[in-house]
Design brief:
- The chain is built from 9 helices and 4 strands; from the N terminus they run ααβββαααβαααα.
- It is α+β, with helices and mostly antiparallel strands.
- Strands 3-2-1-4 form a 4-stranded mixed β-sheet, with helices on both faces.
- Strand 2 and strand 3 form a beta hairpin.
């Protein structure tokens, strides 16, 4: 574990300490996932399918207001639609827009949808952009060390890659594969941050003789990495919410519009 001294800032003193894993010791470290391009035709089809799901439930709900429709993928080729209605009540449809009859299936779909919502919440886009901006600003004023400059560039790139994940067009689909993608992107960001820490260790050790602007940039990147959630594995943060997702899924099942077995 590398613990970097905190420098003359209350925010820095309160920021999380660095607990970092190197690329070698991290069992899941690998190149970051690339966001998949989506065609306009695919997006139009998805919009049409969401509309079809809403209409299918409207015919069963006796006039209850439909509050939202979400496409959910609990596995490859396992598309469902979760419809929320005023009341509240819910309806889970299969890929053919027919209400499911299995309580287990409805519970699994609801839990997946809730977990995906939590993943969306856990990615702080503004904080990631701020981290990338700090790394980019430090890179613009080169330290003279190729290793530091490369680490700063990689850190900025990985932060922006994770920040782009929530805005990907097909993120309107609650996909467990999408959550895995976010996890991979976060791992790549952690690896980049660990590389930055290693590259800048000599600067931290010699901070008393550095220009104040350099020390400020180092401190700012430390603080913004903590705020952006870089230091805590994404999967463990989601794991903290599994119980709540299961409770929410049980509520969906209890309020399901059609009978479940």
């Amino acid at each position: 574990m590398f613990r970097r001294p905190r420098l003359k800032s209350s925010a820095a003193r309160n920021a999380p300490e660095r607990h970092l894993t190197s690329r070698r010791s991290h069992p899941r470290s690998r190149p970051a996932t690339t966001l998949v391009a989506v065609s306009e035709t695919e997006l139009k089809q998805l919009a049409a399918d969401l509309g079809t799901a809403g209409h299918a439930v409207a015919g069963l709900s006796q006039g209850a207001e439909i509050l939202g429709v979400r496409a959910v993928e609990i596995g490859p080729g396992r598309r469902h639609y979760l419809v929320a209605l005023a009341g509240p009540s819910f309806a889970c449809l299969d890929a053919s827009f027919v209400p499911v009859t299995s309580e287990r299936e409805a519970r699994e779909v609801a839990a997946a949808a809730l977990l995906c919502e939590r993943a969306d919440d856990e990615v702080d886009v503004a904080a990631l952009h701020a981290l990338a901006q700090s790394a980019g600003s430090a890179l613009a004023v080169s330290t003279g060390s190729l290793g530091v400059d490369e680490a700063l560039g990689e850190l900025a790139e990985r932060a922006l890659a994770l920040a782009a994940w929530p805005a990907a067009p097909l993120r309107v689909v609650s996909s467990l594969a999408g959550v895995e993608q976010a996890t991979e992107l976060h791992i790549a960001l952690q690896v980049a941050h660990a590389s930055y820490v290693r590259a800048t260790e000599p600067l931290v050790e010699a901070q008393a003789g550095l220009p104040e602007t350099t020390v400020t940039r180092l401190r700012e990147i430390d603080e913004r990495a903590g705020i952006a959630g870089v230091l805590t594995p994404f999967a463990s943060r989601l794991g903290d919410w599994i119980g709540d997702c299961d409770e929410g899924a049980a509520d969906v099942v209890a309020r399901h519009l059609t009978p479940l077995e």
